[in-house]
Design goal:
Length: 280
């Protein structure tokens, strides 16, 4: 009998790392499909308990997709003394190191977890999208087997907000929802992530503008009325310029973070989109 979701702590000579494992529902059609999922939170917040992590993974597991969510270390606010799960020294690439460690752990446990090694994917929402994409680039540069595909939900993929398309400007007209990102807030998140002494590493910390040759097939699900949609759309254009397969679109009527609202129909529409894409 496949157990319900459970937490596991990787604890060795390195720091402890908590994972939450969501085995595929036994009643769903077995496919061996797997997704390593990384929550958002601007690199400073978020947790395994937020709907964007827990509800997403639980819903995909019901569709027969084994998921593992990662409690990667968080980079504290420049002005804060401490942040949950993060001493002051946590900056890029430490959160990315945690994600790679989780990926390699799953790679070594495919048989135990009922995963097909050829159907392993990685994905993330918002800042988790940056982590997922840079993990892929790290694996490619290290000549390791990359994921079969990448799922990005309203991702932050550039250290500076790209220009808006005319269509995005029309969608945002008159929209003043709290939490919409400005160019200044995106710059702050990026610089806080790398730290004051790591500004020269910004190109390494974000996939936008990188050499995307060999990048796996990608699905990008943006929120319609979200300034970060500019980053998802720009990255899709970059993938196409490199000849990489990508499906990109937005969930109508949504603002940033719509996967944090599982009570809404748009959450379930996006889950169906993601599940269908992963199961191909």
């Amino acid at each position: 009998m496949i157990p319900p979701e459970y937490d596991l702590v990787l604890d060795d000579e390195r720091l402890s790392l908590r994972l939450r494992i969501y085995p595929a529902d036994a009643s769903a059609k077995a496919s061996g499909t797997f997704l390593l999922w990384l929550h958002g939170g601007g690199f400073v917040g978020g947790s395994l308990d937020m709907p964007e992590s827990d509800a997403v993974c639980a819903a995909l597991a019901k569709d027969g997709i084994t998921c593992v969510a990662v409690e990667y270390r968080l980079a504290p606010n420049f002005g804060a003394r401490r942040a949950r799960n993060a001493p002051a020294a946590v900056r890029f690439p430490l959160p990315l190191d945690d994600c790679e460690r989780a990926w390699q752990w799953v790679r070594n446990k495919t048989a135990e977890l009922g995963i097909d090694p050829e159907r392993m994917h990685v994905g993330g929402a918002s800042a988790g999208g940056a982590l997922a994409s840079t993990l892929v680039l790290r694996l490619l540069r290290g000549n390791a087997r990359p994921p079969a595909g990448v799922v990005l939900a309203y991702p932050l993929l550039h250290p500076s907000l790209p220009p808006f398309s005319d269509e995005l400007r029309r969608s945002l007209r008159g929209f003043r929802r709290l939490g919409t990102f400005t160019a200044a807030s995106v710059r702050w998140m990026a610089r806080n992530y790398v730290g004051r002494d790591g500004i020269d590493r910004l190109p390494e910390a974000f996939p936008g503008g990188a050499d995307l040759g060999g990048f796996p097939p990608a699905l990008i699900v943006n929120s319609e009325r979200d300034t970060l949609r500019a980053s998802g759309e720009a990255f899709a254009d970059e993938l196409r310029a490199h000849g990489r397969p990508v499906e990109e679109g937005f969930e109508p009527g949504t603002s940033h973070g719509h996967l944090n609202r599982p009570q809404k129909p748009e959450f379930h529409r996006s889950i169906r989109t993601i599940s269908s894409w992963l199961s191909r």
